[in-house]
Write a structure and sequence with these properties.
The protein is an alpha/beta fold. It has helices spanning 31-41, 64-70, 87-93, 151-168, 173-199, 214-220, 238-250, 265-274, 289-294, 298-312, and strands at 3-10, 13-20, 24-28, 45-49, 75-78, 101-104, 111-113, 117-118, 124-125, 132-133, 143-144, 205-210, 223-228, 255-258, 277-280.
């Protein structure tokens, strides 16, 4: 068996990437795509996740050596919508005869803009239900890329990945379609749980560490107030903090949500100042090493997210 190994490094984490000629090689850019591709590909696919466990994808970028090795896979799956800032250069570098099938997993999902909008009370907030953008152009600087955080979007992404696997390995089409149907049912059930449970929640407003939950809020009738913007490392201004505190008071918010892969310092400081508590809301940009060892996946993490949302929205 031909084996090609490359070390992928980023922000204190490492993962071994091994391409094999025994299966269809699939390279994904972050965890949610890896999970979907692994479940659909089953034992016919060798699925490689570029970003190591415990590393925030916003902080990761490949080296030139990594890009070269990615071009040797049969299928490359990326999110799009501006999430992977490096991806356009990589795609431009691919030769037409490279043999790599490319899937933009967010294709077909109505995108949200992440720019601030003014709400009914006159405060500038990064609104959940922004203007939809159906195109996937080069300039994605103001587009919210976090489509996968909504199970409704995840359904479309899984379908796109299934189509990519069929395109790359048509001989196993029926196998991929059967696995996809199993995943589709799980995601449909998850979507139904979110729809039914959140519709009954007495509150609809959440405060989150960064603006990653716009699609979840749009699809299930919630409103997010982010501490930081579309990037998890952006810093709030003094005016932002003032508006967040007012939002907490006006909506009687009981919890501020934080994420495992980024610093919880700001969320905990705001919660302490407001006399409220914190909870985890995982945007599934990656798993912690503990979650990976425990066998968590997209569905189990999202089910935990739902329970925390319901607790906060009472």
């Amino acid at each position: 068996m031909l084996v090609l190994a490359a070390v992928m490094t980023g922000c204190g984490g490492k993962s071994n990437v091994t391409l094999s000629d025994g299966k269809v090689n699939v390279v994904t850019t972050f965890y949610a795509l890896y999970d979907f591709a692994s479940r659909i590909g089953g034992d016919k696919a060798n699925v490689i996740n570029l970003v190591p466990a415990g590393v925030e994808p916003h902080d990761w970028s490949p080296k030139s050596r990594d890009l070269k090795n990615m071009s040797k896979a049969q299928l490359f799956v990326y999110n799009g919508a501006g999430f992977e800032g490096w991806v356009h250069d990589f795609l431009d570098s691919l030769k037409k005869d490279s043999g790599v099938s490319v899937i933009e997993a967010s294709q077909g999902i109505a995108l949200l803009h992440g720019a601030a909008h003014e709400d009914d009370h006159g405060h500038d907030e990064k609104k959940t239900k922004g203007k939809d953008e159906h195109g996937h152009g080069e300039d994605d600087s103001d587009v919210d890329p976090h489509v996968w955080v909504s199970p409704k979007s995840a359904l479309k992404m899984a379908e796109n990945i299934k189509n990519g696997l069929v395109q790359a390995d048509a001989a196993n089409k029926s196998y991929y379609e059967a696995n996809y149907e199993t995943l589709r049912k799980q995601l449909s059930d998850l979507d139904a749980k979110f729809t039914q449970s959140l519709a009954k929640a007495p509150k609809k407003e959440i405060v989150v560490s960064h603006q990653a939950f716009g699609y979840l809020c749009r699809d299930y009738g919630l409103t997010q107030m982010p501490i930081m913007g579309l990037s998890a490392d952006s810093e709030p201004t003094a005016q932002d903090l003032k508006e967040i505190n007012k939002f907490v008071r006006d909506n009687q918010v009981k919890y501020i949500f934080f994420e495992e892969l980024v610093s919880d310092r700001m969320a905990k400081t705001l919660a302490k100042d407001a006399g409220i508590e914190t909870l985890v809301l995982n945007p599934l940009e990656g798993l912690t090493q503990e979650q990976a060892k425990a066998g968590d996946n997209y569905v189990t993490v999202m089910e935990n997210n739902l329970q925390n949302l319901l607790k906060a929205l009472q």
